[in-house]
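Retry 2 of 3 after timeout on previous attempt. Resubmitting structure tokens to design endpoint.
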């Protein structure tokens, strides 16, 4: 791993008090959704992002969500925590995604898409696992922020971007340029912030799930499939879908269930794009 990335991870500031409080509430079995909503209401940025996500076509709640209490009630504590964490992580990191050929807004949108995708998919397989994977999918691409920064510092944006555009495997390009992949960096970031070991390790092997410990291999494989279908620069492209379906079949997943989620997500993606163009 490049020394500049190691230094960037070591110098990351602590998570905000709001996020610390959210994590405490989430870990407290006696805490309620009302307790969580009260904490979030004091952070305008988290409120704005939570309502934006709640009203996106990704979740199709069927009505406008106007306040935090509504959003938290619909999402539940786990998903609300995930959305709040994702927003806070991006605020702490300097997000410039030029080397990947996307804007910071696009990066945030694809992270949300990956999380929504894995939840829609895995709730048909195992609800408990779906909840665990939601947080991991939402945050698994965090390392790309630090990779992009390192590529910019090394003045390699043009060549890196060119290779990314023409590659079927973003992790291989990352490895060639900086010696590590997004999943490895993301794991180090959340280890720095003191997250639990299971969460860290399922992400660490998401770019190479065959190397994952047996008890976590299913999680890492699922994350890999989702980031293959929804790469940050070409989510839901015909090429990425075909590669992702092949990975899923090789791993023993039922193709028809995944294809149904792809269809739903493609429709939501089109609605979102049309909304932005109005």
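Retry 2 succeeded. Sequence:
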């Amino acid at each position: 791993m490049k020394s500049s990335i190691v230094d960037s991870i070591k110098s990351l500031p602590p998570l905000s008090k709001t996020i610390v409080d959210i994590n405490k509430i989430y870990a407290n079995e006696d805490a309620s959704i009302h307790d969580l909503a009260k904490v979030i209401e004091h952070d305008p940025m988290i409120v704005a992002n939570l309502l934006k996500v709640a009203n996106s076509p990704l979740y199709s709640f069927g009505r406008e969500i106007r306040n935090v209490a509504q959003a938290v009630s619909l999402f539940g504590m786990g998903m609300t925590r995930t959305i709040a964490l994702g927003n806070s992580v991006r605020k702490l990191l300097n997000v410039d995604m030029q080397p990947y050929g996307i804007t910071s807004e696009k990066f945030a949108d694809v992270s949300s898409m990956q999380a929504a995708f894995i939840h829609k998919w895995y709730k048909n397989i195992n609800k408990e696992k779906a909840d665990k994977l939601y947080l991991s999918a939402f945050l698994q691409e965090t390392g790309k922020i630090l990779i992009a920064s390192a590529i910019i510092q090394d003045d390699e944006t043009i060549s890196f971007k060119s290779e990314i555009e023409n590659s079927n495997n973003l992790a291989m390009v990352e490895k060639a340029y900086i010696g590590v992949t997004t999943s490895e960096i993301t794991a180090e970031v959340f280890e720095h912030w003191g997250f639990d070991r299971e969460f860290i390790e399922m992400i660490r092997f998401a770019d190479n799930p065959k190397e994952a410990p047996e008890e976590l291999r299913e999680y890492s494989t699922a994350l890999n499939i989702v980031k293959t279908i929804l790469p940050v620069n070409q989510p839901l492209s015909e090429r990425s879908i075909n590669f992702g379906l092949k990975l899923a079949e090789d791993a023993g997943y039922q193709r028809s269930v995944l294809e149904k989620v792809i269809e739903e997500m493609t429709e939501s993606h089109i609605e979102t794009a049309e909304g932005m163009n109005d």
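Attempt log closed. The domain at 3-277 is CATH 1.10.3210.10 (Hypothetical protein af1432).
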